[in-house]
C-alpha cells in the first residue's frame, strides 16, 4: 500500500517578514497610526469578540515563489475581519492567504513616487522576471473589495471597489468622502495638525460625516467639556452646589 505524502505549505513563521526595502516617506508611519487609532473603536464595536487584524506595511502572501518574498505584496495598511489578532499567542510576521483564506476588506497604499507602481495592472503572463502589477494582485489574485491609493503630494485619494470581478473607481459623496459600507465609515482627506505636522492626512468619518477622533483627540474633547462644565458650576451658589453634592474644593 502506497502511503500518501502530506503537502505542507509554509506559514508566517517560515516566510520572510521583510523585502529589505526602506519606508520612503517619514509621513507613512504617523499616517498608519492615525487611521488605525481612529478606527479602532469602530472595529471593536463591529467585532466584540476581538477577531480582526490590522496590518501596517506588512506582507500579504498570495502565491509561492522563489525567493518567497516575490509572492507577497506589502500594502501600507490593511484590515481583515473575522480572523484572530494573533496566532498561537504570537503576532503575525505576515498575512498568509493559504493559511487564513479570508482576504482583507480594504488595502491602502501611500504613494511615494508617481503612482505608477500602485496602478500597475501587469498580469503574471506579461511580467518580467515574475513581476506582477500591484493593482492586478489586489484586484484579480487577492480580490480585495476596496483598494485606496493615497497620494500625499497631491492631497488626494482614489478608492476602487471590486464589482463584477473588476475594480471600479468610486465617485466621492457630497462631502468628498468615499463610503466603505461594510464598516459604516467614510474615507477622505483632512488637513490639520497631527504629530506636530500640519499636512493633508488620510482619515475616517462616520456615515453622518463626523470625523473619527484619535484617542488623544477624544481625551482633549472630554477635557474641554469638563472645563466648560466647571465654569458653569462656578456661577452657582454654595447652596446650589451643595444640593448637587458638589463642594467648592471639587471645582479647584
Describe the structure.
By secondary structure, the protein is of the alpha+beta class. It has five helices and twelve strands. The chain has helices spanning 28-46, 97-100, 134-141, 215-233, 238-243, and strands spanning 52-55, 60-61, 72-73, 77-81, 95-96, 106-111, 146-151, 156-163, 166-169, 178-180, 185-194, 197-206. It has a six-stranded mixed beta sheet. Strands 3-2-5 form a three-stranded mixed beta sheet. The protein starts with 27 loop residues before the first helix and ends in a 9-residue tail after the last helix. The model has no long low-confidence stretch (mean pLDDT 87).
Quick structural summary:
The protein is of the alpha+beta class and 252 residues long. It has helices at 28-46, 97-100, 134-141, 215-233, 238-243; strands at 52-55, 60-61, 72-73, 77-81, 95-96, 106-111, 146-151, 156-163, 166-169, 178-180, 185-194, 197-206.
Low-confidence stretches: none
Radius of gyration: 23 Å
Strand order of the largest sheet: 1-4-6-7-8-9
> Quick check: average pLDDT?
87
Strand tally, please? 12
Helical amount among residues, as a percent range? 10-25%
Q: Could you say which overall geometry the principal axes of the C-alpha atoms support? A: elongated
**Main sheet overview:** 6 strands, mixed
Q: What fraction of the residues are assigned to beta strands by DSSP?
A: 15-25%
- Number of helical runs? 5
Q: Structural class from helices and strands?
A: alpha+beta
Distance between the termini: 86 Å
SSE topology string: HEEEEEHEHEEEEEEHH
